[in-house]
Every structure is written in structure tokens, then in C-alpha cells.
Specification:
There is one protein chain. By secondary structure, the protein is α/β, with parallel strands linked by helices. It is built from 20 helices and 30 strands. It is about 30% helix and about 20% strand. The structure holds adenosine-5'-monophosphate-propyl ester. It is an enzyme of class 6 (ligase).
């Protein structure tokens, strides 16, 4: 396995023509971005259209120090613009109207289409007009529960065009999770499709939306309009039998088909001029208390940061074809499927399916088909694909690839090497991008032509980003060392608040270390100054790149009448990165058996989503607790991996519990 000293220089073919061709260039640009932020970002902002010009004297203000007053960040405050105008009209006016914005590749290889910038602008305007006709106004929330289809992009940009705040929820979340999110933001409209195929699985999305909307209605909130894209009837099903769209139940007065209203709407819609600090969208992320947090991003700063990271991190050039496999319902889909690429006038692939359908080489088939230059995916997908024969990769022509991206969780060196050698032919640069829903865009990342790569290192800060490592006491760790990863100042796309809960924003991110934005991750700096993200330092876990909180799963488990208590920890998993390992204590009358295990797994699937299903459930007649009753998760994590080196257990109320749990680990653990 490569050591921290193994360094892979960017290949000459990548360095040539690269936007940032050396580490010295990068350092110079990074220095300028910190010393003269107005000048650095001001130059970039000039490439966009501002209806009310930027006041350069009032370019950037913030307070990160909770002891000095409320936390805030403002970039280009007072200037007005419209993001959809900049992504669409501006590109059409620049002569790129006929350029392909998206190649759409369906779940089934027989299904594909394409959309130019001009057509995308027309579709967005049409749908924006439909939203307006249903009473949607600036500031209203629109909930979106969509598969990876072009209408999802159209919906996002139509909201941006009229100043409505889109709130996408990954269409793998359960009706419960979705309804909680609709209720929290009190969405007026919901946009979905009748369903979608993912591999051979049929997702009945409208049916899930119906359940979610009726749960909301029970709690006094009625979604006024539900727009449904009729998708299933136009695609090829795995069996070849056409799907009958009349199977989808529609509620009169509330539900309308996209196809019945959008085609006749006008293709022109004047954009709503938005203040730079007006909200653009919100996106929920798990919180360690269990209640999801509505991360709020604003207009101007998010737009310029999404555009700039896309350009430099993927070393994008106008003739490139770019593909990000992330689902549109996650932040990666927002910034690097929609906003970043379109802000650069790029051509992207939008893929509906999975890496495994119809065969385990689908990713490489698609790269070859569209001659993809930049490919961006998650370590969990790489680890899943590594298990198959090399031939599945090598039989395809992947010579178009130049940059390979990784996101969502730490990439283990073995997966990195496979990606680098087999997919990238030791020619491509790998960008291991560290960021969060909250950061809006990449914050730590190598740059393709500039950064000598170390497998598994997120490397260096992007422009405008100032990372600091702190010890437990809040003292800065300079040089080599490890600790909490925090940031000393905001970059343009840092989230501005949590929807309707600024207090929670301040407490979660700014209270532990006044003066810093606290990521919740740990990091170490090696002797060469490279940053390595070591994982969460709070009670969050990352299953296949999906972040969730142990508290959320525990509270769902303990609602089961047979359970007295539950404690959930993350256990390393060869493909998912981490999986859920649950310790449960039954009530006096509860019986621990296969039926209970099945029920508990099912509850978690239903309440959160299938991706959250626990891998291991262990019977724990008692949990290791301190004398004050606090569960010692450190010990549970050791039991989960069967590591008897548990350290100091002198504070435990009953040390015998530990031995008992080691002795009764389930066979599948
Ligand atoms: O723990 C870090 C991990 O994913 C978390 C953010 O999750 P989310 O908000 O869902 O956004 C994921 C996509 C940006 C982080 O706090 N994470 C993300 N990227 C990396 C990572 N951990 C290590 N290396 C990465 N490249």
C-alpha cells in the first residue's frame, strides 16, 4: 500500500494547457484569494451579469466570532442578479445556444436524448411560467422528489428564475423523511415523476409523494399543487413490457401532469432579479440531534463559487464533456451536476441508472459513448466496481478521460490506486474533493495540473479557503499534527443559515471554537503540508456517502414496543465505507429473535430510506455505561470490529457488560 510519502505527479498531458499548471501557480493564486478577496472574486464576478452592479466597497463582510455578536456572512451584498439568467440566457447570448447542455442517458441503454442551452432556456421559462400560474412567488418553497431526468434540472432552474427556493429531497428517502422535510419548509408545490427504473427496480415515486403529502395534511399542511412528470410510459422497462401510466393515482385539483401544462406555456419568462444574499435553495442534511437541518444557500456567492470550483477543480475547457454520477438530490448533484457546469457553459452527461445495469460495466460504456473528459463519482461506487474483473474496464476505450474525481467520504488508498491505474491509465489526475452540503462547493482538493497527488489526501484548500487544525482546547496545531478541521473565514458559497433556525446554525457550527466554522470532521497535516480528512468527530456516520446521525437511527429503533434502549455505531464496511451496527436492549417482555431483527431493519428503511438499513443488530442485555449513565460508544465501536483493545474501562459502572457483548457478537457481524 502506498505510504503517505508516495507522490504521483500530474501527467504532462494534464499539465499542458491546464488552468493552474504548477504548485507555485496555485500558491500564488491562493495567496491572492486570501489577501485580496475583493480583487480575486471581483474579477470572477465580472464574468457574470448583475442587474444592480456590485458595490466594491461593500464586497465582503462577516462575523465568525460568536462572542462578538451574531454570525453572518455577506458577499456582494446589495447587488442583484438571477442565477438562471447567468446559466442560460448569458450562454445563449454568448453564442452557445446550440451547444449541448446535457446528454441524457436513461436507465436502459436504448433511452437517451439531448438538450441544447437554447432548448433548456425555453423549457425552464415554460415551467417557471407554470409555477407562477400556480401561485408560486419569490421566497416560496418548492419541494422536489425526482429521478435523474432532464425535468429535474428544468425544475431547479425554473425555481431560480422566479426566486422560489427549491428544496430537493433525494428520491431514496422514505415518505416519512420526505414529509418531515416538506413540513419543515412548508412547501407550496411538489414536483415529482410517476416513477423511475433504477436497474431492474421500479421506484413508485408518486405513491411515496402521496403518502408524504397525506402525512403533511394530517399535521395541517396542504401541498397546493403536485406536478407529476409522466416518465415511465416513455422509457424502456427492463422486461420490455410497457408501463401503463394510468396506474398512477392523481388527486383532482392538486395533481397535474407536467406534459399537460408545460408544452403550452410561454417560452419566455422575465427573470426575477434577486439580491446576492437572497436564498437560492435549501437542502436538508442530517443533524447529530436527529432532526434534519435545512442548509440555506444564497444567490451571488454560491453562483461564483460553484462556477470557479468547477472550472479549476475539473480543469474544464469549453470542448470537454463532463460527467458527475451523483444524484441531483444531494449537494454534489446541485453544485456539480447543475449549477457549476451550466455556469461554465459546459456539456454534461446526466445519467439515470446505476453502475450495474444492464451490466457491471455501464459506467465505462457511458464514458466511452460520450467520450467523457472528466468523471466524478464516489468511493463507494469505486469499491463496488473494483470487485469485478478488470476486463469490464479495460475492454472500453477510456482514453478521453483527463480528470477523475472522488467525493463524499475518504477514499482508501486501494480504491484510489485502482481508479488511478485501471480507469485513469496513470495518466489522469485524481481530485479527492472534500466538502459538505454546508460548504456549497469544494473546500479541500488537489488541482489537476498543479498538485502532486497522494492517494487519500484531500491535499490543499481551494481559493478563498483557510483551513486550520485545532486541538481539543481550541489551540491551533501548526505544522504536522492532527485535530479538528475548522475554517477561519468564509468563502463565497458557505451556507448562510439553517432554514428558520439561525440559533441552531450558530450552535452547531460556531460555538465549540469561537472564530471558526467547525466542519465536524477531523484532519491531519503531514510533513509536506498535505491535509488528510480522517472522518467525523461527532456522532454522524457515512454509509455509501450518505451522512446520517446515530441519534436519528436510535430514536427510530426505540419507538419499537419491544425495545428499551438502542445504541448505534459505525462499523467499517468494505464497499459502503461504513455501515450501521446496532446494539439493542429489549424490554422485559420483548423477545430478541429473527422476527424482531427483520422488523427493526424494516422500520429504519421505512422511516429514513433503504440506504439506512442496519447491517448488524446485536442483542445487548445491558450497554456499557459510565456511572453517570452515559453510553460509552468508544467501547461499542471496538466491539463492532471485534477489537479487544478497549483501553481504559475504569469509569464503567459494570465492566462485565463488555465481556458479555464480545462473547455474544452475532455471526454476521
Ligand atoms: O465527513 C465528510 C465526508 O462527507 C461529509 C459531508 O457530507 P455531505 O454534507 O452529505 O456532503 C457530501 C458531498 C460533498 C463530510 O463532513 N466527506 C465528503 N467528502 C469527503 C469526505 N470525507 C473525506 N474525504 C472527502 N473527499
Amino acid at each position: 500500500m502506498p505510504s503517505q510519502r508516495t507522490v504521483y505527479e500530474p501527467h504532462a498531458s494534464v499539465v499542458k494547457n491546464s488552468h493552474v499548471p504548477s504548485l507555485a501557480h496555485y500558491e500564488e493564486m491562493h495567496k491572492k484569494s486570501l489577501e485580496k478577496p475583493e480583487e480575486f472574486w471581483g474579477e470572477i464576478a465580472k464574468q457574470f451579469y448583475w442587474e444592480t452592479p456590485i458595490d466594491h466597497k461593500n464586497f465582503f463582510r462577516y462575523n465568525f466570532d460568536i462572542t462578538k455578536g451574531p454570525i453572518f456572512t455577506k458577499w456582494m451584498d446589495g447587488a442583484t442578479t438571477n442565477v438562471s439568467y447567468n446559466l442560460l440566457d448569458r450562454n445563449v447570448r454568448n453564442g452557445n445556444g446550440e451547444k449541448i447542455a446535457f446528454y441524457w442517458e436513461g436507465n436502459h441503454p436504448d433511452d437517451y436524448s439531448r438538450l441544447t442551452y437554447k432548448r433548456l432556456l425555453e423549457e425552464v421559462s415554460r415551467f417557471a411560467n407554470v409555477l407562477k400560474s400556480r401561485g408560486v412567488q419569490k421566497g416560496d418553497r418548492v419541494a422536489v422528489y425526482m429521478p435523474m431526468i432532464l425535468e429535474a434540472v428544468v425544475t431547479i432552474l425554473a425555481c431560480a428564475r422566479i426566486g422560489a427556493i427549491h428544496s430537493l429531497v433525494f428520491a431514496g428517502f422514505s415518505a416519512d423523511s420526505f414529509s418531515e422535510r416538506i413540513l419543515d419548509c412548508r412547501a407550496k408545490v411538489l414536483v415529482t415523476s410517476d416513477g423511475a427504473w433504477r436497474g431492474e427496480k421500479l421506484l413508485q415515486l408518486k405513491a411515496i409523494c402521496d403518502q408524504a403529502m397525506s402525512k403533511c395534511a394530517q399535521k395541517g399542511h396542504n401541498v397546493e399543487t403536485c406536478v407529476v412528470v409522466s416518465h415511465l410510459a416513455r422509457v424502456t422497462s427492463p422486461s420490455g413490457t410497457p408501463y401503463k401510466s394510468n396506474k398512477t393515482p392523481m388527486t383532482d385539483g392538486r395533481d397535474i401532469y407536467w406534459q399537460d401544462v408545460v408544452p403550452q406555456a410561454s417560452t419566455s419568462c422575465y427573470p426575477e432579479w434577486m439580491e446576492a444574499e437572497d436564498p437560492l435553495f435549501m437542502l436538508y442534511t442530517s443533524g447529530s440531534t436527529g432532526k434534519p437541518k435545512g442548509v440555506l444557500h444564497t444567490t451571488g456567492g454560491y453562483m461564483i463559487y460553484a462556477a470557479t470550483t468547477f472550472k479549476y477543480v475539473f480543469d474544464y475547457r469549453p470542448s470537454d464533456v463532463y460527467w458527475c454520477t451523483a444524484d441531483i438530490g444531494w449537494i454534489t448533484g446541485h453544485t456539480y451536476v447543475v449549477y457549476g457546469p451550466l455556469a461554465n457553459g459546459a456539456t454534461s452527461v446526466l445519467y439515470e441508472g446505476t453502475p450495474f445495469y444492464p451490466d457491471n460495466d455501464r459506467f465505462w460504456v457511458v464514458v466511452d459513448k460520450y467520450k467523457v473528459n472528466q468523471f466524478y463519482t464516489a468511493p463507494t461506487a469505486i469499491r463496488a466496481l473494483m470487485k469485478f474483473e478488470d476486463d469490464l474496464v479495460t475492454r472500453h476505450d477510456l482514453s478521453s478521460l483527463r480528470v477523475l474525481g472522488s467525493v463524499g467520504e475518504p477514499i482508501n488508498p486501494e480504491a484510489w490506486m485502482w481508479y488511478y491505474k485501471l480507469v485513469g491509465h496513470e495518466r489522469c489526475s485524481i481530485v479527492d474533493t472534500f466538502w459538505q452540503t454546508e460548504t456549497g462547493g469544494h473546500v479541500l482538493t488537489p488541482l489537476p495540473g498543479a498538485t502532486p497527488m497522494k492517494p487519500g489526501a484531500a491535499s490543499f484548500p481551494f481559493f478563498g479557503v483557510q483551513p486550520v487544525i485545532l486541538d481539543e482546547a481550541g489551540k491551533e496545531v501548526k505544522g504536522e499534527g492532527e485535530g479538528y478541521l475548522v475554517f477561519a473565514r468564509p468563502w463565497p458559497s458557505l451556507m448562510r443559515s439553517l432554514y428558520n433556525d439561525h440559533d441552531r446554525y450558530e450552535t452547531t457550527y460556531f460555538t465549540k471554537f469561537p472564530g471558526y466554522y467547525c466542519t465536524g470532521d477531523g484532519a491531519k497535516r503531514d510533513a509536506d503540508g498535505y491535509l488528510w480528512v480522517t472522518g467525523r468527530v461527532d456522532d454522524m456516520l457515512n454509509v455509501s456517502g450518505h451522512l446520517m446521525s446515530t441519534a436519528e437511527v436510535e430514536s427510530i429503533l426505540t419507538e419499537h414496543p419491544s425495545l428499551a434502549e438502542a445504541a448505534v455505531v459505525a462499523k467499517p464496511h468494505p464497499v459502503k465505507g461504513e455501515c450501521l451496527y446496532c446494539f439493542i436492549t429489549t424490554t422485559e417482555h420483548g423477545v430478541f429473535d429473527d422476527k424482531l431483527i427483520k422488523e427493526l431493519k424494516q422500520i429504519v428503511r421505512e422511516r429514513i430510506g433503504p440506504f439506512a438499513q442496519p447491517d448488524v443488530i446485536q442483542n445487548a442485555p445491558a450497554l456499557p455505561k459510565t456511572r453517570s449513565g452515559k453510553i460509552m460508544r468508544r467501547i461499542l465501536r471496538k466491539i463492532a470490529v471485534n477489537d479487544r483493545d478497549v483501553g481504559d474501562i475504569s469509569t464503567l459502572a459494570d465492566a462485565m457488560v463488555v465481556e458479555q457483548l464480545f462473547a455474544t457478537r452475532p455471526k454476521n457481524a
